[in-house]
Amino acid sequence: MIYLVYLILALSLAAPLALRFDSRYIAAATSLVLLLISATAGVPVGVVVSLVALALSLDWRLGPFGLALSFAVTAAVTAIYVYYKSEPVVYGLVALALSTAAVYGLLAMDREKENVEGAVKYLLFSGVGKVLIVVGYVLAVLGWHPGLYVTVLGFMFELGIAPFHAWVVDAYALGSPRGAAALVAFSKVTALFVLLTIFKSLKAPSDVGLVALIIALASMLVANVAGLGAKTLGRIMAYSSISHMSYALAAVSLVWWRGVSSSPANVFGVFMSTVDLAALVVVLEALASGLAKAGVFGYMPTRLSDLLPPRKSVLNVLNIFSLLGLPPLLGFWPKLFLILLILAYPGAPLAAFLVAWIVLNSALATPYYLRAIRMVAEAPGRVADNITSSYTAFATTIVGLTLPFVIYAFL
Known about the structure:
The chain has 17 helices and four strands. By secondary structure, it is mostly helical. The chain has a two-stranded antiparallel ribbon. A two-stranded parallel sheet has the order 3-4. The model has no long low-confidence stretch (mean pLDDT 85).
């Protein structure tokens, strides 16, 4: 953990340098350092996130905003490290705060009026969410466990869970595409791992889990129905993100509500507790959503995401198929594991309802994902695939193909 603290201090001291030259070199150097720290510490998720940041830094001329990208990826890797290495929750909360200003800068980096508007909405609602998360967590630590209701409310703001999801649509649609890539690849990943860390460190009353589960199920439906009417790539990706964050929240909420099942789940011949399986759903949902959307936004050669892409992309078709949940791409596995998590608990009527709900929402999402595929595949301009779309499509495919073998061999 000390190396991550030193890195944050070094980036703070490097701020004056960022004003003098294109600080994407700082972002590239930061990504390489984080890659080394993650590999040495044995945190493969941190390795993947660092590689995404490296691809983004190599693709773009960021000017002084390369420093913002550096802080965003450092926050994400810190939150990941805190969860896997069981560090104090406070480090995760610091990472969550660190990501806010960084992603705000990236959303507004093209300095258009619309970019700033989308960034301000992100800053306002994300700020409210972070305050509620901290207040609720402190109350729970002090012994008032219903304070976790406040924490859940904070994560609803932070992750864009309905009914507090409108800011996500505006931030994705109006922000710089490069900022939207950072938002989904780093800010959302940071928040999900902080959620996991709080879940692991505190015992929540079961009622908190039930309330959060009902909210997550409703949010899925709201997002997928609203996505059917989305006409631009940025808005489609926004509703997709709301839906994916709802799946992740549902996994954690189910275990909060039902507790640890006496019957472990069988995943490719490996028996996993429901707590570990819920964590796996969240990790894979974060990776699947973050990788694919970073590729989609990272290739868009526009100043605004609320536009049809002017150039086509071949590789992002794979990324969008992953978001749809097409097997064996990465996005298929968190949905399957969520279903296995549901089936690990006794109670056939409840399990049937929850599985049917997941399948229904996956079916509802299909039309707007197919619309997004047409947008990137049939755009009039030449093919505009770049390092980011190439790397994310490769990772989405390879990780999806090898995941069963990895689980069988190492878990």
